[in-house]
Amino acid sequence: MAMKIYLVRLDNILFAFIFILMFFYYGLNETLFDPPQSVHVWRQTNSLSLTHNYYQYKQPFFEPEMHNQFGNDGTSGKAVGEFPVIYYFVAQLWRIFGKHEWIFQLLHVIIIFSGLFSIFYSLKYLLKSSFWAGFNSLITFTSPMVVFYGPKFLPDVPALMFVFIAWYYILRFIKKRQVVNLWASALFFCLSMLLKVTSGFSFIALGGWLIFELIFQHKSDRIFNFRLKHFLPFILVLIPVFAWYFYADYYNTVNQGHFSTHGIWPLWTTTKENIYRIIDVQNKIFFKQLFLPFLQYTTLVIWFFLIITIKKLQPIFQYFIIVLPIGFLVQVILWFQILDYHDYYLINQIVVLVAFWAIFIIRVKSLLSSLNFRIVLKVFFIAFFIWNVIACREQVQTRYEGWMNETYHKHFKALLVIEPSFQKWGIEPEDKVISIPDFTINTTLYYMNRKGYTDFASDFSTPETFYRRIEQGAKYLIVNDSTLLKSEIIQPFIKDKIGEFKNVSVYNLQKLKTKTND
């Protein structure tokens, strides 16, 4: 008994050790202290802007606000997307320990480890093997999207990890039949859907199986064997999910602050040319960012194998190898137009890959009777796993180097350290600014920690927009790209230059404001 406990603890320690090795190999110990940048800095700084406003202005939980003043006809930043529980929590941590973005990223890393460890523990029960459980759970951490976006402030990876934790508690219920595990599972499913509504696909799949089992299977054949009271946690958690998205739509409508779609962007409403363009973007760039392509092709082959041998699988596995791909396909179709640059929308579907590999391992383990063959196979999969880790690191590095991060290095980076110059020029912390060019919502505004306006929701190709934003309180114009200064439209607004810092030029707009008021 003591030896068994020792071995259990050893494999948990080994899992944590491998995770830490991967963490350092990917260079996350360094990027943990980097500011938001690279692919989808737009989305990263949205999260940080909401968090910062909770921190600096002590915004009420249900009244989030961001730096860009595009709401309320250009007078406020009141807007919301996903349930801001993580943003609010990080803001409280900042009040205790000071504002450090690494605190935010470290919290996400802890969530990632918790999610992966939960699925590792669940798979040990299903696969009866620490090795295969470790391989199947840690393979998730070889996704460049998970490794890059995971710590980087976005809610998608935490939502996926909460799904993993929810399934862990489902397995605990099967083992112990304690209702408290169902409430815990429902809670984490709820959190995942509040952070990312599309993470609810496996929740829906689980519900479908539970209903099927209740109606069509004899009690002796059921796995979950739910009574009606067991459904209660999963029904009740839908209330806060629907309530939040209803409130978010209401809040954004009242404040005219829509910035994150809670609807669908289906394939059938776009053009044929755009469909080909999105497919081309996915094929050339983002396909290899989800996982090593060979792993994805192998997973597809595994699925075909499972379909061919479906009669030899348990009924619940038959159900999931059919339903989960349908869910994946439904998401791709309903949110197809977002997939041009929003690669992270596929992160929540990694649960499909984990499920396929788990079912496949269960299916073939019984065929591996030779000890020597099992050893050789494990050596092969260790090498395969290392290949995925190496490929992941290479892909993550491309996000910090080259064209993916060119705008940050050439134009935006200087804004991170411009505050001393602002103080020298007399630009106060509460002074609103126009920051161009910046087609994101909050990036340059967050870097400078100034409220104001970017090219998002402001058409600065016309002088009327400049004058309107000046009327609404913009005192300074911040230009981070000198080529923009050649435009005729901008000429009336760059006559009063007050300073220059690296590639950034700053202009006073207050005389223009006085002029327009005369």
Primary descriptors:
single chain; 518 residues; mainly alpha; 2 domains; five-stranded mixed sheet; 5 strands; 4% strand; elongated
Short description:
This protein is mainly alpha-helical. It has helices at residues 2-25, 28-31, 41-57, 85-97, 101-127, 130-138, 144-149, 156-176, 179-195, 201-216, 228-236, 238-255, 272-290, 293-308, 315-334, 350-365, 371-400, 406-412, 419-425, 443-448, 463-471, 510-517, and strands at residues 432-436, 452-453, 474-479, 497-501, 504-508. The chain is elongated, with a radius of gyration of 26 Å.
Kindly describe this structure.
This protein has two domains: 2-400, no CATH class; 410-517. The N and C termini lie far apart (88 Å). A five-stranded mixed sheet has the order 2-1-3-5-4. The chain has 518 residues and is mainly alpha-helical. The chain is built from 22 helices and five strands. The chain has helices spanning 2-25, 28-31, 41-57, 85-97, 101-127, 130-138, 144-149, 156-176, 179-195, 201-216, 228-236, 238-255, 272-290, 293-308, 315-334, 350-365, 371-400, 406-412, 419-425, 443-448, 463-471, 510-517, and strands at residues 432-436, 452-453, 474-479, 497-501, 504-508. Helix 20 (443-448) links the parallel strand 1 and strand 2. The mean pLDDT is 92. It is a multi-pass membrane protein. Keywords: Cell membrane, Glycosyltransferase, Membrane, Transferase, Transmembrane, Transmembrane helix. This is Glycosyltransferase RgtA/B/C/D-like domain-containing protein.
